[in-house]
Amino acid sequence: MRHKLHIGALAALLLGVIALAPGLAHAAGDGMIVKTSDFGVTKTLDRLGIALERAGITVFARIDHSKGAKKVGLELPPTALIIFGNPKLGTPLMQSNQRIGLDLPLKALAWQDTDGSVKLGYTDPAWLAKRHGIADRDAVFKKMTGALNKFTNMAIKKGGLPKQ
């Protein structure tokens, strides 16, 4: 595998993700859950955004890392990020430990892997609970885990998007 290390933090993140086995859909030691998509990077995030918004979850931003790289004369395979959240779930977590605000709102990264497949990755809520030492909000983390699994599955597989 060849990686351009001059991309900095993004490269470090991608190196960790690429090391995971193809199709892996559970969190590794880095707390990242990775799934393989049936679609390209843009369509995967489009579908995720639709699923989230139809469920009343706010999509705050999308960042096209490949486009940013191109603007500075560098190359990066298709790689994009979506930032989303729900204050009804996030605020109680921050009431337990405000430092989780570093990881909220939530994010999902879609990228084209070296083998041409498209991956969708996000941080496992259980890993966030452990990282921030939050032990009094199990129901919130459980709800987040189920919702993220549901919405990311909608994004990566044909059919299944919720109706408007």
Describe the structure.
It is built from six helices and five strands. The chain is an alpha+beta fold and 164 residues long. It has a single domain, classed as TATA-Binding Protein, CATH 3.30.310.70. It has a five-stranded antiparallel β-sheet with strand order 1-5-4-3-2. The N terminus is likely disordered.
How does the major sheet shape up?
5 strands, antiparallel
Strand content: 15-25%
Cα(first) to Cα(last) distance is 42 Å
What is the overall pLDDT average? Answer: 86
What structural class results from the helix and strand content?
A: alpha+beta
CATH architecture: 2-Layer Sandwich
Model regions low in confidence, pLDDT < 50 over at least 5 residues: 1-24
